[in-house]
Design brief:
Length: 447
């Protein structure tokens, strides 16, 4: 699957996961998990594509050009430009100034301009072309960073194909024909000045290939004037410019494009892979597929029965006096389970007492790296979703590190009381299956 299809697959997957928010979470978990168990072993991208075909109304991705086709178009443009430069005046020497201007300096300027415009590539012709191919129901807040990186990658793909087309055509002409180069100018330009220019241009390869930097003698012998009949004996000397011109193509046209293309491809690949773990909707989708829903009817083992849930006041302001709320355990930090929208997370933390909400916040990965024996953490979970096996795995890992976890399934503001109580009971049945160092924190408001 090429990069363009991956980008559109991710955008379609994001939109479908946002649409599924309106469906009951228990039903989604059961539906996706049962579907996943029937699937053969396959890559993440194939899994996402087949899932969309099974559950999305948009079963087909839009028609997209392949990266190979984009590179082929660029190569044809490069072939056409280089052929024109070498065949423009077949009976005269090829003026290196025109060749450098049209074959090296302008393409290099085009490449730098493309990099500069790539900073706002969502307004470029590539991004607009991608946006037009989005489905009609696509939201206005579509993932613009991913579109921007994809547009940059398409631009660099075309540019790299153009450079390979120019370099390949020039090399074929060197093999299959006899080329004679020289320089000419109406102005009173001395050979010494031209020699200084070519020396500056040849700095990148002067040490590696000294013969690819023309000498002063070569510069003097290859100056020509319009209408002049150059002796045939000088044709072999005029052909020696090919080393210099080839290195100009490789160093100033091809090499920068290879570097920029590789860097853009790396950024796009990382962005696509990172979206699976950093987007809350896609992370929930992935967990529904790979983690069993906790079976809540299983009775806890007698040796693993944790203490009763700890009841605390939700804030010291609601207590009978202004003394610090001693019901709260001594905590070292707040650990965040899963991915949260920033505004929802801030509103939940604001419900905690000041002494707790001022604690540092850690992700689940940071918790496993920084937790030490004897530490205690508040584990903030999404109370509007049933517990999953990933939380049980985290609790088991913390227990092995002799770390205490106080689990708080934070309620979703505005949730119906019946649904909230149902989810609360699911968490109460979930805790007896955890190690004894994990406790359910029962935050109660005091009028």
């Amino acid at each position: 699957m090429n990069k363009l299809r991956k980008t559109f697959l991710l955008l379609s997957l994001q939109e479908q996961c946002r649409t599924d928010r309106k469906t009951d979470w228990l039903h989604l978990h059961r539906r996706d998990r049962e579907w996943f168990l029937t699937q053969p072993s396959q890559s993440r991208w194939q899994l996402a594509q087949h899932w969309l075909q099974a559950f999305s109304s948009q079963t087909h991705l839009p028609l997209l050009p392949s990266p190979f086709f984009i590179s082929l178009v660029g190569m044809l443009l490069g072939v056409g430009l280089m052929s024109g430069l070498l065949e423009f005046q077949p009976h005269q020497r090829i003026n290196i100034w025109w060749w450098l201007l049209l074959g090296v300096w302008l393409p290099a300027l085009w490449w730098m301009l493309g990099l500069w415009l790539g900073r706002t590539a969502e307004n470029s012709i590539w991004a607009k072309n991608l946006t037009r191919r989005l489905p009609s129901h696509a939201p206005s807040n579509i993932n613009t960073p991913l579109l921007r990186l994809t547009a940059q990658s398409m631009s660099q793909q075309l540019s790299l194909g153009f450079a390979f087309g120019m370099a390949g055509t020039f090399f074929l002409y060197l093999l299959l024909s006899d080329l004679a180069f020289g320089w000419s100018s109406t102005l009173d330009v001395t050979s010494e000045a031209v020699h200084r220019v070519v020396q500056v241009l040849g700095i990148p390869w002067n040490t590696l290939w000294p013969n690819a930097v023309p000498s002063l003698e070569l510069v003097e012998q290859t100056r020509f004037f319009r209408g002049e009949n150059s002796p045939s004996a000088n044709a072999e000397t005029a052909a020696q410019w090919w080393r210099f011109l080839l290195m100009n193509l490789l160093c100033y046209v091809l090499a920068p494009r290879i570097v920029s293309f590789a860097w853009t491809e790396l950024k796009l690949h990382r962005a696509q892979e990172r979206l699976f773990t950093q987007d809350a909707c896609l992370d929930g989708w992935w967990q529904r597929l790979h983690f069993e829903q906790v079976r809540q009817h299983a009775a806890p083992a007698p040796s693993n029965k944790p203490p009763p849930s700890i009841e605390v006041a939700d804030s010291p302001e609601n207590a009978a006096n202004d003394e610090p709320n001693t019901a709260w355990p001594q905590l070292d930090a707040i650990a965040i389970a899963g991915h949260w929208q920033p505004d929802v997370l801030d509103s939940q933390v604001a419900e905690l007492p000041p002494s707790v909400r001022s604690l540092p916040r850690l992700t689940s990965n940071q918790l496993t790296q920084r937790a030490e024996s004897g530490h205690a953490f508040l584990l903030l979970c999404k109370g509007w979703e049933p517990p999953t096996g990933s939380i049980a795995d985290l609790c088991q890992q913390m227990h092995e590190q002799q770390v205490r976890l106080y689990i708080w399934p934070a309620p979703l503001p505005g949730m119906k009381a019946g649904r909230a109580e149902q989810l609360r009971e699911s968490w109460q049945l979930f805790v007896p299956q955890l190690p004894p160092s994990c406790h359910l924190l029962d935050v109660q408001s005091h009028a």
